[in-house]
Amino acid sequence: MINNLSILAVIPARGGSKGILLKNLKKVGGVPIVELASQVASAVEFIDRIVVSTDNEEIAKAAIKGGADAPFRRPEILSGDRISDVQVLTHALKEMERQDKKKYDVVVMLQPTSPLRTKQHIVDSVEMLINNNYDSVWTVSETDSKCHPLKQLTIVDKKLDYYDVNGKEIIARQQLQPMYSRNGIAYAIKRKTLLTDKLLMGKNSGALICKGDSISIDTELDLELANYFLEKVQKHADIK
């Protein structure tokens, strides 16, 4: 609890990932990524409850090993690849409020596929939410200028065109306004925003800009990169 607000952390980790089979059990630094998410969440003192939302028993076991609870199984109807985060979080929140017989004021979503998160990322996102009275706070990373929307192209019927007509005016990267992408490290959301407004991003939302390396795991190459980045961080810490 923080500022008399109760906090529920939800780790969404279904078993039916298509890109990498049982992706949430893949290891970074020798530890399954769902277990890593549980470990980091468990280090945050003000989180009242940490649960994994999964339909898979092995994933549930790994999350429990990391310090999370697995008091329910996600129903099949919410386990497909076209199910929204709002649906998953709403189910988890309502189920835990039913089981715990209490109301949670803030839900924090921690996607296992962002294994480079730290305790401070979670703390900062929740504190930003509360101190600034935001509806939600997302962690984001600055987009590489090479991937800026104004530098993107489309191909339709084999014809090349600008994704945005304003792209033809771009000569140097200094002309580009910084853009940001969600990195999945943490989403802090107020109860009303989720249950009443049915939104992940409320009308009054803040961004916690994360510095340094960040990666969201979708492919085997992403796993290799995550292990490389983690090893780099650990070596830097050893030097200090």
Explain briefly what this protein structure is.
31% of the residues lie in helices and 21% in strands.
What does it look like?
The protein is α/β, with parallel strands linked by helices and 240 residues long. It folds into 2 domains: 7-143 and 180-239, Spore Coat Polysaccharide Biosynthesis Protein SpsA, Chain A, CATH 3.90.550.10; 145-177, no CATH class. 31% of the residues lie in helices and 21% in strands. The chain is built from 6 helices and 10 strands. The protein has a 6-stranded mixed beta sheet, sandwiched between helices. Strands 2-3 form a two-stranded antiparallel ribbon. A two-stranded antiparallel ribbon has the order 7-8. A hairpin with a 2-residue loop joins strand 2 and strand 3. The longest helix has 20 residues, at 220-239. The radius of gyration is 19 Å and the shape is globular. It starts with 6 loop residues before the first strand and ends with a helix.
Write out key terms for the chains shown.
2 domains, single chain, globular, two-stranded antiparallel ribbon, Spore Coat Polysaccharide Biosynthesis Protein SpsA, Chain A, 6-stranded mixed sheet, 6 helices, alpha/beta, 240 residues
Q: Helix and strand layout, with pairings?
A:
Elements: E1 7-12, E2 27-28, E3 31-32, H1 33-42, E4 49-53, H2 57-66, H3 85-100, E5 106-109, H4 119-131, E6 136-142, E7 153-156, E8 159-162, E9 180-190, H5 191-195, E10 205-209, H6 220-239
Parallel strand pairs: 1-4, 1-5, 6-10
Antiparallel strand pairs: 2-3, 5-9, 6-9, 7-8
